[in-house]
Prior knowledge:
Blueprint: E1 2-6, H1 7-17, E2 22-25, H2 32-38, E3 45-48, H3 52-64, E4 69-74, H4 75-91, E5 97-103, H5 117-123, E6 127-128, H6 133-150, E7 154-159, H7 160-163, E8 166-170, H8 185-188, H9 192-215, E9 219-222, E10 229-232, H10 234-244, E11 249-253, E12 255-257, H11 262-269, E13 274-277, H12 283-290, H13 309-315, H14 343-352, E14 356-358, E15 375-377, H15 383-395, H16 397-400, E16 403-408, H17 409-426, E17 431-436, H18 465-471, E18 476-480, H19 485-497, E19 502-507, E20 522-524, E21 543-546, E22 549-552, E23 572-574
Parallel strand pairs: 2-3, 2-4, 4-5, 5-7, 6-7, 10-11, 10-13, 14-15, 14-16, 16-17, 17-19, 18-19
Antiparallel strand pairs: 1-8, 6-12, 9-11, 20-23, 21-22
Amino acid sequence: MRELMLGNKALARGLWEAGVKFVSSYPGTPSTEITEEAVKFDEIYCEWAPNEKVAMESAFGASLAGRRAFCAQKHVGLNVAADPLFTLSYTGINAGLVVVVADDAGMHSSQNEQDSRHYAIAAKVPMLEPSDSAEALNFAKLAYEISEQFDTPVLIKMCTRVAHSQSVVETSERVEFSTAYEKNIAKYVMMPGNAKKRHPIVEERTRRLIEYAETTPINRVEFFTDELGIITSSTSYQYVKEVFGEEASVLKLGMINPLPVELIKNFASKVKRLVVVEELDPIIETHVKTLGLEVEGANLLPRIDEFSQNLIAQAFGKKISSGIALDDAIPNRPPVMCAGCPHRGLFYALKKRKCTVLGDIGCYTLGAVPPLSTIELTLCMGASIGATHGFNKMLGSQSESKTVAVIGDSTFMHSGMTGLANVAYNQSNSTVIILDNSITGMTGHQQNPSTGLNIKGDPAGKIDLEALCRAMGINRVRVVDPYNFAECDVAIKEELAAAEPSVIISRRPCALLKTVKHKPPLKVDADKCIGCKSCMKIGCPAISMVDGKAIVDSTQCVGCGVCSQLCPKKAFVSTAKEA
């Protein structure tokens, strides 16, 4: 059956067809939809893990039990899961184990632009790289065959364009798979004596995988001319085909680690000019150069951002498309927290007190943009608490009285707990604010261990944040409503003045949750409004100024009332009676 599918959906379909039984992931754009699609298949057990390391370890446990297993994360998530990955390369697997890492060239929703191919090379595990939805489905199935044939976890590298674009796929039926677990201490217990014996096995496996790479159909030559030969993969292959058609011969690599040797040498011998087209780091190009071949690539193309058809055409001196110009100027739409976002009032209270705010990964990072301009640091998941601890340890009372860490509930579950344990154990006088909006917001409303619901929305174990913080050694724990500006202001003032570590839990569900019932929208009494713009200081997209007066967009306003607490003339009134 032929069907149009997103790359992520197609990969999930491939998991089902391959007989996968277990999926554990942590949401991260652009990988999230793979697990969200996989959970729709009743034959696959799916879960959101607290973080990527736990997800990979859980998937390995399922593989050890003899069932095909899978986990997915974005590129920075693989940093978190790297610890088990590198040793999994030594232990190998029982049933097939496939790991997706989704890179984000162009940083559409990420804090860096790293190239995950380095992980495959460093961990010495095979990596496949699909270039469209059909390959995403087929490579997922092939990855399990490779995993079991070579006794190794297999990485599949997705990227934003493949994950979030659609193409036609050919679907098949599911093939069930299972194998028995057998105790094998020498294989699975990686103490030094056993690990030393496993390393030669990894090297021999790499040699056999190189032989496989020479003949696998997913590494293929499309020969049209001897004038120009291009080696490429992933979306770069699609761009090359659109720009050159049959004006260039192409070596399309679907398996990018380990890379073939003889296949590349043979291809290079047939063309007068050899060029590598690849996004980000020159992984393929470096390999080709180690083979002693003359090749271009980094001298023509940038090592940053996404490629495009026009960028590649321009690099080769070809005519580029000018596109279609619009007559009307399109206004800028800078990112902003949603109307009714529970973080807005809390951030305004922090700004009013001129706090130094060290932030974390989540939609609340938007607290860094005007007019709030509050967040002063965003590094990686969980870093806000550890950074605040070190900051306060070095600057002492001059920072302790005004510095706070802010972290979301999902991010706290992911990797914030260890930072808080460090604060409690090593006793920095630090204030941590957990922004509990009862969901994993930035990646599209996934559940987490503090929400009490699992990936399907069914009741699940629920972690009590207050009890957890106290159990970790924090004596001062209090909960505030971020819609209550005065309550937030008092809590921040008192906890910063306390002579011990403290936690403030700012609790209010995300305004976009379907389960949240909003109050009627507000409106502005024009007779009372003096145009002072106090309400504009919170940056709510539902409020604007027209003819010197504030107005409220009733289609966006959720009646949170934060703006009314800032208005000196009480000009904001409810529309409840009108309704």
